[in-house]
Amino acid sequence: MSEYLHELGRLLGGDGASGEVFVGRGAPGAAETYTVVPNAGSPRLLVPHGDRRAASAAISHTSAPRSAKDRLRQRVLSGVFATGVGGLVFRDQVAVRRGGTLAEHLSEVVGTPVRMSVRFGPPRANRKPVLQLIDANAHTVAYAKVGVNELTTRLIRAEHAALADLADRDLAPARIPELLHFGPWGDATLLVMKALPVWHTEGARLDPAEATVAAMHALARVRGVDAARFGGSSYAGRLAAQVDALGERPAAHLMRAVLAACAGAELAYGCWHGDWNGGNMSIRGGEVLLWDFERFTADVPVGYDVLHFELHEAVTVHGAVPAVAGAEVAARAAELLAPFGVDADVAPMVAALYFTEIGSRYLGDRQDGFGTPMGRVDEWIRPALAGLGRDWAALAGKSPVGEENDGE
Asked: Quick one: which of 63, 174, 318, 346 is 20 to 30 A from 32 by CA?
């Protein structure tokens, strides 16, 4: 992991940082220095070193906590840095030479001096640094993403295009980030967005479930909704190409069978966020704050977002086994899709196409090689399809979840 921190340091330091990145303890005093949380062996976050207010803000404004446990953990960690002992508890550091650094460049972009924290997840295909920009008053003013390889650069370019397209459209009750900058940083690509106020608590209280569905409904229809038979549609062609890129693996054969089974379905097509989950949204001040539009796509069956949300929350928040979670979402497909105007007899086909869409995406991005539960598509897609009913179970080659095979 130290190698990754050296690479990250070179990114933060700019062109002049090659060979001048420090990772360890006791960084040079004149350097631009970051504290590694929790440590260099398993880093998750870099916060500004020597600035207790900025470091505390980096913790408290990193994201909106999703549970009482998360809120407590965030509050305690923020307090550790606010009292000035963060550098004693977390002793590993990353430092780069001042002059031409990314933090200095971003200060020019947002028009005020900023300190910077850096968040990054565990190793996976779409791993990239997400930068939190904090002003002199310890307010988070913007976020930036850095595309560091072919996949992450493609995703950042797609998010830039999506935010530009949606900037002046009515998405109420949803509110999305405002674009500030898009351009190169050395060999990387940089996307800068104004921060959404996820830490605000003022304003009308919204019912979380109702507000989420209303926001999904608005986004799905932001460009209008068209009806067409799936077979021969532009979406069918795109999805078939995505599946064909997987070659002859077993899941791909099953996905092709799904496409054939849905060919005659009359579907409504709109937009979807592409990765709507509780970690990409926050309900604050009477609005649904929504970000991370890397996977935003138009001309897909209406209702994908709610299916994705339910599946993602079941697996990543509640710890459900993907095969079981997929089958449960499938069993509820008609209920989940009804608010979006999807008829009960069409809902299983929309769900089957969603499972094909998300499964082929994960396999195409090689998420199966990074140990993520949903990345092991071959393990969950058959049970998920079987949960849609007897005909789909026959297509998937197994009996419906919760029923015994009667031998017919």
From this structure: 63
